[in-house]
């Protein structure tokens, strides 16, 4: 990314597929949503192909790769099946996330430090294929150092605990989580890692994260898909981008 301070927005379209799958059939179409998101100003599209295919399907990935003008960020578990799919499609980016079948959504960051050797070998062919490899992790120095050692180019910091604390009105915990995210954004940047962030972000919580100068991209999905019911997808994305740019502009002005 250039030094203009522009913060990228990746829009996760998983839960368009969740709505489709609740009824069966082909509507609403996640690929159509992805194209609308691009038209509304999304810098990239994120899709998580889960092992149980609870929302995004293999056909959705085929359709996204064919239809998108911008980059696809392919979220996936670190399994042989998912590696084969990624190597077949060669998306712009691959983001490794933890995955448990019983969870409703991704509950935490990937445990990199304990699986360093396995993950280093796992990501090597993805990097050789030209995919940017990102690791979704907690704001934890040990995990960030491990992600750096195994050759990841990007980390995505899990903002879920910060967002949950805000929603629960636990502002002391929220501020602790925010401070950790701020510190670890700077630490990861100092190692040469590109820093992204996401999970649970809303209009109420996005600006403090967007203000971190080291963060180059936010990935936001569930809230935007839900908000699109009331505003429409384009206006929902437009408002999120406005808040992000406002926060980043404030950061640049204070730095100047």
Automatic annotation (TrEMBL):
Question: Which residues are involved in binding 1-deoxy-D-xylulose 5-phosphate?
Answer: 14-15, 50, 55, 105
Tell me the Pfam families matching this sequence. PdxJ
Q: Where does 3-amino-2-oxopropyl phosphate bind?
A: 12, 23, 200, 221-222
Q: InterPro entries in the record, alphabetically?
A: Aldolase_TIM (IPR013785), PyrdxlP_synth_PdxJ (IPR004569), Pyridoxine-5'_phos_synth (IPR036130)
Alphabetized, the UniProt keywords read: Cytoplasm, Pyridoxine biosynthesis, Transferase
Pathway(s) of this molecule: Cofactor biosynthesis; pyridoxine 5'-phosphate biosynthesis; pyridoxine 5'-phosphate from D-erythrose 4-phosphate: step 5/5
GO-annotated cellular components = cytosol
One of its GO biological process terms is: pyridoxine biosynthetic process
List, alphabetically, the SUPFAM superfamilies matched. Pyridoxine 5'-phosphate synthase (SSF63892)
- Give the E.C. number(s): 2.6.99.2
Q: What class of enzyme is it?
A: transferase
An example of a GO molecular function for this protein is:
pyridoxine 5'-phosphate synthase activity
Coiled-coil residue windows: none
Q: Which family does it belong to?
A: Belongs to the PNP synthase family.
Name recorded for this polypeptide: Pyridoxine 5'-phosphate synthase
């Amino acid at each position: 990314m250039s030094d203009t301070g522009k913060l990228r927005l990746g829009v996760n379209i998983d839960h368009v597929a969740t709505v489709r799958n609740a009824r069966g059939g082909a509507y609403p179409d996640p690929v159509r949503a992805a194209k609308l998101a691009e038209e509304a100003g999304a810098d990239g599209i994120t899709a998580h192909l889960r092992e149980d295919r609870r929302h995004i399907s293999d056909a959705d990935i085929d359709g996204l790769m064919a239809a998108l003008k911008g980059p696809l960020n392919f979220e996936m578990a670190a399994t042989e099946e998912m590696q084969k799919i990624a190597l077949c499609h060669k998306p712009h980016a691959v983001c490794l996330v933890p995955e448990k079948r019983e969870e409703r959504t991704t509950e935490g960051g990937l445990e990199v430090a304990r699986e360093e050797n396995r993950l280093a070998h796992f990501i090597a062919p993805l990097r050789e294929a030209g995919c940017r490899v990102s690791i979704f992790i907690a704001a934890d120095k040990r995990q960030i150092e491990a992600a750096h050692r195994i050759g990841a180019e990007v980390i995505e910091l899990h903002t879920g605990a910060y967002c949950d604390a805000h929603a629960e009105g636990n502002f002391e915990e929220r501020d602790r989580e925010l401070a950790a995210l701020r510190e670890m954004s700077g630490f990861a940047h100092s190692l040469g890692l590109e820093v992204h962030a996401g999970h649970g972000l809303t209009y109420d919580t996005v600006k403090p994260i967007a203000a971190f100068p080291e963060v180059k991209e936010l990935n936001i999905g569930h809230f935007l898909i839900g908000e699109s019911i009331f505003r429409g997808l384009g206006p929902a994305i437009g408002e999120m981008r406005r808040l992000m740019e406002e926060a980043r502009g404030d950061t640049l002005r204070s730095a100047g």
